[in-house]
Amino acid sequence: MKKIFICTLLMAGVIAKSQNYSAINGILTKLEQRAGIHQNLKNLSLDNKKFVLIKDFDDHTERSFIIIKGNNVTYVDMFDDKATNESTSNVFSGDIIRKKNILSLRADKLENQKIPIPVSKTLLLTKQDDIVYLIDINTRERWIDEESYSKK
Fold this sequence. Notes:
By secondary structure, the chain is α+β, with helices and mostly antiparallel strands. It has helices at 2-35, 146-151; strands at 49-56, 60-69, 72-81, 87-99, 102-110, 113-128, 131-136, 142-145. The protein contains two helices and eight strands.
């Protein structure tokens, strides 16, 4: 009788521990998605995708767009002045290179005029809760896919 009781207790302990490990595994997966690491997104197509970044300040709003078409990219910076309600924009064009989940953007033309110092960005492609993001490696800014944003 003692042996059956001890075996039952041992099995209950093992089952409880395995449930605990699956909960920890779920939490770690969520954290990895949030950080953008260990994701296999090489099959995710970025062709004809538009990513948006909006920064709101006291005196102005900055809206930036990255539009990817094949290996070409258009990078648009828009500044909206809240005092005068005026908008100004800069339209850069260039190319983009993708290696797994890392994108390297190089925009060397400003409104079809070659510029001496190109705008360059290194971005990490991530996906969390079916929303595609680009995270700027240097500034940690999150660019959201416009299709994902407009669904919400």
